[in-house]
Amino acid sequence: MRNQPLAIALGFDAFLIVQPKVLETIRANVGGGHDFTEAGGILIGSYRGIHIDIVDCTVPHPADVRRRTLFDRKDKGHHDAAMAAWRLSGRTDTFVGEWHTHPEYHPSPSWLDRRTWARLNRRSSDPLVFCIAGWRSTWWGLGHGTMLKRLIP
After folding, report:
1. In the annotation, is 38 catalytic?
2. Which of 33, 67, 93, 151 has the fewest C-beta atoms lying within 10 Å of its C-beta?
C-alpha cells in the first residue's frame, strides 16, 4: 500500500521499519533497458531499542562509479549526508546500511556485495541493513558481525 512504511520482522519482536519516502526513492532509481547503470546510496535511520527505523537515503552522487553491473559509492556526499542527519536529529539518525540496484528481475547479493558488506559489518558494532532493488522485487538483508540474514517482507 502506498504511503505506508514497510515493516519487516527481524525476530524476537524486533522490526525493520522503512519509511515510504525511502522506498519511493529507491524504486525511482531502478532503471531498465540497455543503458541501465546501477544506482545506490546509504540508508539513514536510527536504532530504537531493538528496532531499526530507516527514515532517509542518499542517491548517486557525481563521484560515484556507475556501470551496468556495478555501483561503487565513492562520493563524499554520502558521508556528509549521514553527518548532517546525525547533527540535525540530535545524534539519533545515522548510517544504518546501504542500498543499490541490480539489472535483474529478482536480485540477490553478488560475491562483491557480500565481501563489501562483510567489511562494513566488521567496522560496525550495530546491525546494518542491506537492500538490493531489482525490476520486480527487492532483496533485504541484515548483517551483524559475521552474520548476514535475508529478511522476508
Report:
1. yes
2. 33
**At 149, which amino acid appears?**
K
Options 24, 38, 98, 104, the catalytic residue: 38
In degrees rounded to 5, what are phi and psi of residue 100? -160, 175
Q: Which of 55, 57, 58, 87 is nearest to 75 (CA)?
A: 58
Dihedral sign of CA atoms 20, 24, 27, 29 in order:
negative
| Residue pLDDT, tens place only, 30-76 | 987 677 899 999 999 999 988 999 999 999 999 999 999 999 999 99
1's grid cell: 500500500
N-to-C CA span, the chain: 13
3-state helix, strand, coil in the chain (%, to 5): 20, 40, 40
Look at residues 73, 46, 49, 51 and name the one whose alpha carbon lies nearest to residue 62.
Answer: 73
- C-alpha torsion sign, points 39, 144, 21, 8: positive
User: CB under 8 Å to 53, separation ≥6 — which residues?
Assistant: 17, 19, 45, 46
The sign of the torsion formed by the CA atoms of 23, 28, 29, 30 equals positive
pTM of the model: 0.93
In the block, residue with C-alpha cell 524486533? 14
Pick from 68, 53, 65, 76: which is nearest to 126 by CA? 53
